[in-house]
Each structure stands twice: as structure tokens, then as C-alpha cells.
Protein 1
Amino acid sequence: MDLFSEIEAPEREELRALRKELEEANYKYYVLNMPTLSDREFDEKMHRLQDLEAMFPDMFDPKSPTQHVGSDLGKKGFEQVKHKYPMLSLANSYSREEIEDWVRKLPSGVEIVCELKYDGLSISLWYEHGVLVKALTRGDGQQGDNVIDNIKTIPSIPWKIERNDVPAFFELRGEVLLPWERFEALNKEREEQEEPLFANPRNAASGTLKLQDPREVARRGLDAYLYYMLGENLPGSTHFERLSTAREWGFHISDAIKVCHSVDEVMAYIAYWDTERKNLPVATDGIVLKVNNLAQQEELGYTAKTPRWAIAYKFPAEKQLTLLREITYQVGRTGVVTPVANLEPVQLSGTMVQRATLHNEDFIKSLDIRPGDKVWVEKGGEIIPKIVGRADREETSDPRIPRTPSFPSCCPECGTPLIRVEGEAAWRCPNETGCPPQIKGKIEHFVSRKAMNIDGLGEETIDLFYQKGLLHNIADIYDLKLEDIAVQERLGEKSAQNILDGIEASKQVPWARVLFALGIRMVGETTAKKIARKYNTIDTLMWATAEQLCAIEDVGPQIAENIVKYFEDIRNLEILDRLRKAGLQFEGEAEPEPTSDKLAGMSIVISGTFVHHSRDEYKAMIEANGGKNVGSVSKKTSFILAGDNMGPEKRKKAEDLGIPLKTEEEFLEMMN
Ligand code: IVH
């Protein structure tokens, strides 16, 4: 026996380690929504694993990540449905050479359709006799979650196609996206409410689609682009024709699709869109190339994970190398201390960048980043630019480059020793009531629109009042006097009076919003509302135990502990006492939850006369089911509940805008 056969080749160990790493990366990407590898790293590792598996066929495993696409299954609450056709992924390419390699394997003279690669989540819409009956996520590629109630909140997805020439069954696949504008607004709001930010619109769309509350989904404003039609006896013999037909049927199909006849043409399309995509309202991360002829597509077929008739080309991420001049530390309103890279200014995605986040201490240590280094800065989908890497140092012994600076042990704003909660990466200043950015942050949150909504007290004014010693905590707001504030720079008597009027009006803000305004950590607007429904006075809430609080939907042990701690702190009790004396609402019935979500996010116009119920009854029905009754028809109207003798103007406007009408009977059936 060969002596060496006993010793295992190191590649076998590498193969096992790669499988494990990619399994984990898939889980973090699809289930936790927290990607750990860049697409490129993921692809490189996947290729290496494929090579190793080819080297050791005896190690074949049907469960290997090379044999199936990642999974986003595992959430509660949605019906799981088997796909009629598996939902596959696409092979990636990054260069002209790789595209040429792919084209070489195709029949000569093929037509290639170029499309944008939308960076969201894939969705499969099932239409039976023209009616949307299911909307499935990719899941594990074999079965997905039916998220139809959430999908129905997307205005561009038709619920019903009013034509008699559509096939009995067809499926349209596409991408669900959160447009940039909505993404930025959502993150801004989450920042205000101390909720974790979404890293990019893709994560935000994925988190949104998994919500169990279609009203919240509707509010966030998802959109969808459709890019592939499947089924039996469908019209057309090319992919391009099918998408054009789908467009005629009322589906949202991108105008950026183009039939190309050569690699040169494909490369010109790529070059054009690599720049032009920055003007699109949604995120794209590449181009998809598809064989146009459907018979040829069928002939080419599929591998276990991807079609052979399509390939993705990924745009290079926008990053730049620049000099790290200095690391400074910024204290946020929750006391988290973030290291900030001060950079030699550099142009990135159309803006000049000179500051970028270094995330936390572990990040700096793991990359051994020091002032004087050249670092990679990326903007990607995020609002705040981030450092993503460091260039190799030419001379590590260069005395001008100091050692990695140590993270400060005390708060740079107030000098309090920092603490690091176990399991968290962030250092935090615990001096909630004495640290300037935390004091001002708490006041800014308290007066914000969704909290006490006090007009006139913006960030600058709060800063000014803080500097002048007029504001130290939220209770001080109710002690402000006209003579104190009218004399401040930039403020005359009129604006001072405005502020005081706003403060006076805030005394009527209902209890649920007051609770949100207090700024208890992790108690956002929705959670506050849920708590206020259960505890309709502060006096009962104050005595609630963590266990009792956990019984409330959305309240987990961490939030419960934050609430209990808040009411244990004597300084908070003093503030609450002053606020109560000032006349704030510390009790009251919170608005009840609607009885169903059937009409969540919809704007419905009622017009005409009815037989079964009165107009007011229909209005109440709409509201109890999560919808909104509006007076006039616009492009935002979801449908019109149309009785007899509907006004001719409304009818014309509805026709012009393509707004569907529902009869009384259809509406009642829908409500049943
Ligand atoms: S075609 C059989 N076309 O990219 C594969 N996919 O990385 C059918 N995607 O899972 C997919 N834009 O979610 C296709 N124009 C487009 C696309 C697109 C985005 C997504 C899709 C797919 C993923 C693969």
C-alpha cells in the first residue's frame, strides 16, 4: 500500500472549509439579511469550491452550496408553496473575456437581449385567468413564501388583467425593489427612532417583504420590475416579444431592454448603463444577457443552479483609494462612539468624500488601519461612505506610520470612561444625561415630528439653547419663557412665540406618542403604540415587569429590560414628574388596530349610490380593513368602489388613469 495514501490532501480540508463558509455566508445573506462577503468574494470562493469538487468527485454532496441556491426560507407566518419551475440564480461574469467565453458556447449568430440587473429580491407572480393568485419569494429555489398581501401593496403590479386574450395560467418573474428615495427616507426615520439602519436598498426591500404588516409595507413604497415570463401556450417565440406583450398587458417592464447581435454591441450597452444607471430611481448592480430565441433557450437548458442561456455581468463596485489623514471619534445621540476616517478628499459616485466610517474598534484592528495608510473608500448603496480595505504598505517599517492608534478609553465629548456591552462591537458613553451630543440628541428626538412635533425647535436652536444654558433635558422645554428666548440671536419675538405655541400644542399629543418621545432605547413609534394599547397609563407601565412587557407583540427581552431600567432611574422619574406637572398626556386610549389588513396601504374612492350599505358604512369598512377613503381620483387611487349613478367626471378620470372600478358586490366579496 502506498504510504502517502493515508495522508489526506490539504485540498480536501479546504473543500470542507469552503462548503462551511459558503453555507454560513448564504445563511447570513438570505436569512439574517446581513451579508458578510462581497458578491465577488462569494463568487471567487464558489468557483474555487467547484474546482475542488471536480478534483475530488468522491466528495460529491447534493447538499453542497454548489448544488443549490441560497435560501431565504425559515420565517414564520407565510404559506410555503412549491415553485412550478425552480427559481434559479445566474452565473456571474466581470469582464469582456468572460462574456466572450459564454458567447462562444452559444449557437453562432444568436441574438442576445441585454437588460439591467436590478438589485432587489426575485419574485414570482402567478396569474390564473388573469387574476394574481400567488406571489412567491425565491426561498430555497424549490419552494418559496407566498407574500401576496405584501406584493399587492405595489401599485404597478396588476391584481387583475382586464383582457380576454391572456393565457389560462402564466407566471411573471421579476425583482422587488425599494427606490433610492424611499430607502433614504426609511433609514433617516430609523435613525431617528434608534432602529438599526439597512445597509442598502436590497436589504431594506428584503426586510420589508418579510414584514407581517402589509400597512407598513405599503407605507415604505416598494416597486417591482418584471423580466421573465413562463407558462404553457404563451404568445411569442422570443424573450423580447414576450416582455413586450407583458408590457401591453399592463406590467412594469423596463424600457432599457435591447436586442444585440455582437459582443461589441453588448459592451457598448454595458458602458452606457454603467454611467447612466446612476440616474435611475432604483439600484442596479449589473447587466443580464439572455439568449433571445426561446427554442434556443430550451435547447441550451440549465445546470443545477443556473440557466445556460443567460449570464449576469456585474459592475465593479465604486471605490477609491485615498490617504487616511487622521482618525477621530464621533459620539452619537445614543452614546455610541464611532471611529471616523478623515480622508484626503476624493470623488466618489458624483460627490466629494472626505469622511467615512471605520465602523468600530474590531474593524480597525482586523485591518490594522493606521493614519498615513492608503485606504479603500466605498459608497455603494449606503448613505454614509465606509472604509472597506487598506492598500498594502510598501514599507511596513516606515517610521512615519505610527502603530494602530488605540481606541479612546474615555468619551471624547464628556470624558466619562466608555463601556462595551458584551456581544456588541460598539463602545458607548454611559453618561446619558451629562454628555452633550446625547443630551441634544434626546431633545431633538423629543421635539421631532412623529414625537411631540414642536415646530421651530430645530437642531440649531436646540444647540443654541443648550449653549446658553436654557435646555439640559426634555423637561426644561416646558420652562422656556418668552423673555429668555426672544433675546437670543437669530430669534425675534415672533419666532419665539411660535416655539412657545408649539410647546403649548404638544401638551395635547396623545400618550402613545409621548411614550415614543421619551426616547427609551429601542422603543420606536410602532412599539410605543403597541405598549400604549396594553398600558393606557404611565402609572401601570411604570410597574410592569420585564416578563409582563415581553407578552406585548414586538417587545423582546432587550426592549423590556430597557423599559424597566428607564423607570428605575431616579433622574428619569424626576423628569417625568416635571412633564406631568407641565400637563403632558400620560394616559389615554391608543387607537385600536384595524380588524384586518385586507386593504392595507390602499386609497379608495367611493362614488355613486349603494344598495347593501350606506356610504358611511362602506367608509368605516374600508378603514377597519386598513384602507384609506379618499375624496378624489388620482393616480394613487387603488380602486373606486362604484355604486349606481357614479359621477361622470370621476368615471372619465378613472378611465384616463386606468384606475379599476369595483361594484358593491365585488367589494363585499373581497371583504368576506
Ligand atoms: S433573469 C433563470 N433578469 O438576479 C434566471 N434576473 O443573480 C432568471 N435579477 O435571481 C433571472 N435583474 O433575482 C433576470 N433582468 C433580470 C434581472 C435578474 C435582476 C436577479 C434575479 C436573479 C438574480 C441572479
Protein 2
Amino acid sequence: MFFKKKNDAIIVDPSRLPKHIAIIMDGNGRWAAKRSLPRKAGHKAGAEALERVVTEAKKMGIQHVTVYAFSTENWKRSNDEVAAIMDLLRHYLKDSFQRFLKDDVRMQVIGDVSGLDVDIQEQIKVIVEESKEKQGMTVHIALNYGGRDELRRGIQKIAEKVESGELSSKEISEETIEAYLDTAGVPDPELVIRTSGEERISNFLLWQIAYSEFYFTDVLWPDFGKKDLEKAIYYYQNRERRFGGR
Ligand code: FPP
């Protein structure tokens, strides 16, 4: 037994933490609807949950957290909702990310940043640069991200190397592919969390989740907190990971 349960409290084993947790933050809209609030109020509460969860994950000693903030499919939402999420992001990059900086958190972005408004691209550059020496933990924000699109972009770059003669097609290994993904150099997530009762991957980190454990919870993302994070890690610590072996 690798864990203890004391007075029904969830006790996480600090020596067996996942290095990397990926989170599909779902349920902002339903959280808002339950309160008769506009969807953007749900996203605002979701952004607050993100800051809370990152802070807790860092305290626990998690090294990487990747969150799905805006997918390549999210552009299909109403103009109003997309604008509200982008405004929240602008605000976030100024405000919460400044607090992350003070807390020794490094910021990275995955996804096709070139599809975002220029001012947001500039803000991202600054934050990534300013935080690059931070050691506490790394938060990877997926923006205009899709797993298939990431693979497509990576394959395109590999094909260019082959065309120019810098790489032979026979040399393409799994490591080559990994090196051309947005997550190059980052360990794969051992644990993926999806909130709000949905049990889908929705084009998130398709390559990287080959051996991940999945934790699905009915909790809506804006309500997700420390206890829920502990429950997810507790669940992970009680799974036997075989990586295809026995
Ligand atoms: C899913 O809820 C959430 C999103 C598509 C956006 C995620 C954004 C945040 C958590 C906050 C923004 C964070 C940053 C950094 C800008 P949903 O709208 O699909 O909820 P529903 O399924 O209940 O409608």
C-alpha cells in the first residue's frame, strides 16, 4: 500500500507525485448557467480556479501543469464568447501571471500562437522570456491548441528538414517526432484530469498521453480546488502503471 487514509482524509504520498498533470478545464458554461450568469462569468471563475490550482500544485511539488485554455475548435463559439475569453487572457497575462512570476513559476505556451491577436502574442513573448529562469514549477497554457494541429505542424517541420537534406527519412524516430512537438523536452503527463463529467480527450496532447492515467470528475472547473486535486493525485497513486508490460 503506497497511501494512507486518516479520518477519511485523502493523504497524498509526496514521494510519488506525478511530475506532470494535464487538465481539461471543462464546465465553465454550466457553472455560469446554474447561477443564471453569462458564460463569460463562468470563464472568469475558471481563470480564478486555474490560479488556485496552480498555486496548490506548486505547494505540493508538482513540476509541470498543462491546461487546455483555448482549443483550435473553440473559434466556433460565438464572437462574443471568443472575445470574452481573449479579454480574460489579456487580463490574465498581466495580472495572474505577474503573481505566478513572484511565486517562481515559469510560463510556457503550446499551440499555434500565430493565430492569436498580435497584442496577445507580444504579451506571451514577454511572459515566457521574463519567467524563463523560474524554477518552482512550469505552467504550460494551451492556446489555439489542437493535438492534431500540433502533429501536423511538427510533421511539416520534419518534412522541410528531409526536403533540404538535413535529415534522412530513415532517421525519423519517436524522439525526432517528440523534438518537433510544442512540448519538446517536457516529460509526458502521467495524469490527465477532465472536469464536468465529460469523458473525452477532445484533441488534447494526443501524442503525449499514450501512457497517462485519466481522472474524470463531475466537479465543474470553477469549483475545482485543493481537495479535488488531492483526490485526483490519490487516484493516480493507486493505479498500477504497466506501460504495456506486466
Ligand atoms: C470549458 O468550459 C472552458 C473553456 C473552453 C475555456 C477555458 C478557459 C478558462 C478556464 C479560463 C480562461 C483561462 C485563461 C488563461 C484565459 P465550457 O465553456 O466548455 O463549459 P460548458 O461545457 O459547461 O459549456
